[in-house]
């Protein structure tokens, strides 16, 4: 099972510990970080979606234009763009980039934020039902060799057809996230890769089991699995934990300026509740999963970290690989500097360690 490293390209230089001091859409930052990811050996980079931020599809087009090999993972939400149109938009971009595009489907758990984009479907289960119909149509646009019609509760299409198809015969990969029962059901039907936040070993076992069972219900093979986490590295373990403590102190001091704080309405998605649940177990879970930033911010994004030397964090990635994780979405609290640092040691060390495990497994199976 091959592994994939996914990075993160933000629209500007900001994080829980960095206050933005440039434009909201900073082309120089985007270009610099994109090229840094490519040079660091990342396979792909995520472009996120939020109701108030620059459009990720257009940003991804720019990223593809300034890189040669880096793939992009473009987050989009069902309910805002017609599925037929989005399918053609992605197919065109996939053709121009020669197959470097993937779709990350984010249904959205915060009804208040969704309403900023005019989405008034407040029931979460209904939103996931709409997502399932959305993906039915997207896949039909990508794969159908003749016009098709679709009659659902949320979408109706008459004689839909796309002249342009994805670059590769197997189509465009769909990444999918969500932790509720409704989300798992949709993942079982549609996901090529299922994305988890940085959870404990026990939680990963639980989630992957649920998704595999849902896929089996639909007669599909299990998807691949991705883990999102924030590595904090230093040349000794002691220095790494000191660095984590400094990050916590800076994040706490800058909450008002960065906006990374617990939602005022107490809102938490199912995924956030899972991260907060492990935070309740302690500051450090399993070998080196650190939870204090998740606790500080209400886990309203990817906020758990792995703390240690590059060798120690690579070892933990090996543990997750043994649990079925093949994709690692990693981003730092200092986005550009950390991406370069990950490429220097963490990524090659992890590839080497997992490659050795794969060869050992093959020998044992002979």
Keywords for this structure?
single chain, 366 residues, alpha/beta, TIM Barrel, two-stranded antiparallel ribbon, 13 strands
Structural description of this entry:
The protein is of the alpha/beta class. It has one domain (4-365): Luciferase-like domain (TIM Barrel, Alpha-Beta Barrel). The chain contains 13 helices and 13 strands. The protein has helices spanning 27-40, 56-66, 83-96, 111-115, 124-143, 181-190, 201-217, 237-253, 255-258, 270-281, 292-297, 310-322, 335-365, and strands at 4-8, 44-47, 71-76, 101-105, 148-151, 156-160, 174-177, 193-197, 224-233, 284-285, 289-290, 305-308, 325-330. Strand 10 (284-285) and strand 11 form a beta hairpin. The radius of gyration is 20 Å and the shape is globular. The chain has an eight-stranded parallel beta barrel, surrounded by eight helices. The model has no long low-confidence stretch (mean pLDDT 94). The longest helix is centred in the C-terminal third of the chain and has 31 residues, at 335-365.
Beta-strand segment tally: 13
Helix segment tally: 13
Predict the CATH topology: TIM Barrel
Could you say which overall geometry the principal axes of the C-alpha atoms support? globular
Q: How would you characterize the largest beta sheet? A: 8 strands, parallel, barrel
Class in CATH? Alpha Beta
What structural class do you assign from the helix and strand content? Answer: alpha/beta
Radius of gyration over alpha carbons? 20 Å
Low-confidence stretches: none
Biggest β-sheet: strands ordered side by side in the sheet = 1-2-3-4-7-8-9-13
**Percent range for helical residues?**
40-55%
Q: How widely separated are the two ends? A: 17 Å
Overall mean pLDDT stands at: 94
Give, in order, the helices and strands: EHEHEHEHHEEEHEHEHHHEEHEHEH
- CATH H level: which superfamily? Luciferase-like domain
Q: Approximately how much beta-strand content do the residues carry?
A: 15-25%
* Domain module count: 1
CATH arch. level architecture? Alpha-Beta Barrel
Q: How is the quaternary structure best described?
A: single chain
């Amino acid at each position: 099972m091959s592994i994939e490293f996914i990075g993160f390209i933000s629209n500007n230089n900001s994080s829980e510990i960095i206050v933005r001091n440039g434009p909201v859409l900073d082309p120089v930052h985007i270009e610099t970080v994109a090229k840094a990811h490519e040079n660091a050996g990342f396979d792909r980079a995520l472009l996120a979606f939020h109701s108030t931020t620059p459009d990720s599809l257009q940003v991804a087009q720019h990223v593809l234009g300034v890189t040669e090999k880096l793939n992009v993972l473009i987050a989009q939400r069902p309910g805002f763009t017609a599925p037929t149109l989005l399918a053609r938009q992605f197919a065109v971009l996939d053709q121009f980039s020669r197959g470097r595009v993937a779709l990350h489907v984010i249904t959205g758990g915060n009804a208040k934020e969704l309403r900023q984009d005019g989405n008034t479907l407040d029931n979460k289960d209904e939103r996931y039902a709409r997502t399932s119909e959305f993906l039915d149509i997207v896949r039909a646009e990508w794969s159908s060799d003749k016009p098709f019609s679709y009659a659902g509760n949320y979408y109706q299409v008459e004689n839909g057809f796309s002249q342009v198809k994805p670059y590769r015969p197997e189509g465009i990969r769909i990444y999918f996230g969500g932790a509720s029962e409704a989300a798992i059901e949709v993942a079982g039907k549609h996901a090529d890769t299922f994305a988890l936040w940085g959870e404990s070993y026990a939680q990963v076992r639980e989630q992957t089991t649920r998704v595999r069972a849902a896929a089996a219900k639909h007669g599909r093979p299990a998807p691949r699995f991705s883990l999102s986490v924030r590595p904090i590295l230093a040349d000794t373990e002691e220095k790494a934990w000191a660095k984590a403590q400094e990050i916590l102190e800076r994040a706490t001091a800058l909450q008002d300026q960065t906006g990374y704080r617990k939602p005022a309405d107490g809102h938490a998605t199912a995924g956030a509740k899972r991260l907060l649940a492990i935070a309740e177990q302690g500051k450090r879970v399993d070998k080196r999963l650190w939870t204090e930033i998740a606790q500080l911010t209400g886990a309203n994004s990817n906020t758990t970290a792995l703390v240690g030397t590059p060798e120690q964090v690579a070892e933990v990635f090996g543990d997750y690989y043994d649990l079925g994780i093949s994709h690692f979405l990693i981003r730092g609290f200092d986005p550009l500097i950390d991406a370069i640092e990950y490429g220097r040691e963490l990524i090659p060390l992890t590839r080497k360690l997992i490659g050795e495990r794969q060869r050992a497994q093959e020998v044992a199976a002979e």
